Amino acid sequence: MPQSNTRPKNRRLVPAMVAFAIIALTSIAGASPALAAPAPQTGWVRVAHLSPDTRSVDVRLTQLGRDSAVVRLDSVAYGAISAYQPLSPGTYLVTMTRAGSRASSTPVARSSVTVVEGKSTTVAAYGRNARLRLKAFPDELATPAAGIARIRLLQASATVPTVSVVTSTGTTIATQARGGTATGYIDVPAGTWTLLLQAKSRDFSTTVSLVPGSVTTLVVLDTARGALTARPIVDSAAAQQIPVGAVQTGGGFLARDTSPASATMGRILGSTAPEMRR
Q1: pLDDT score recorded for residue 91
Q2: pTM metric for this prediction
Q3: Reduced to 3 DSSP states, what percent helix, strand and coil does the chain have, rounded to the nearest 5?
Q4: In the chain, at which end, N or C, are there fewer CB atoms within 10 A of the end residue's CB?
């Protein structure tokens, strides 16, 4: 009789152990997605042609240690600003050659830019052709506070030494900014602003509309008649999440390589920027 009482107890233990094993396996399976590979690291670069007496150029970005360009910008005219291009972190060689020339031609300008994960950069050619320079300017991605916009000045005029900018309400954006420099960003209430630019007896005003949550670069350029002009470039804008550039000054030249042969795959109009950080 004692034996008959022991066997049923053992039978009841088996289903309990099986149930425990199933729960344990389910928990392990449910945790597996956390082991997925992280998203690729990315930084962003855009290129601007801001040299008034330099003809159209072809631009190439080539990662150090690689043979073929990863970004091609063809027939870039004065005042043109490319879309942001997502790139893997690292150092890239930036070269500019006369539009239509061979890839082996001597560049009219060359420099390097370091791409950092999560950061965006504008590489600009500026100054007279005889002293053409390339310079990298770090851009801003962080979102301003609610109802606020962010703006800075990039002084790219080759005909005046300095430019100062103040709003019609007296807020200073730039004080005697020298050619080839960019000021820091400042926060202002979003809305339509009248900006007064002062530059060696060539003072003028311009109007810009700043969307809430946007980040803008105001670029000072020379016109064909020797006057000055100021154009806003949207670095990023919270309203669109993936911001859209505001300047079309000869766009349509952007072509990004997607093959080892560096073949031009197409042309992209406009300008986009990475998603803003919150």
Answers
A1: 97
A2: 0.74
A3: 15, 45, 40
A4: N
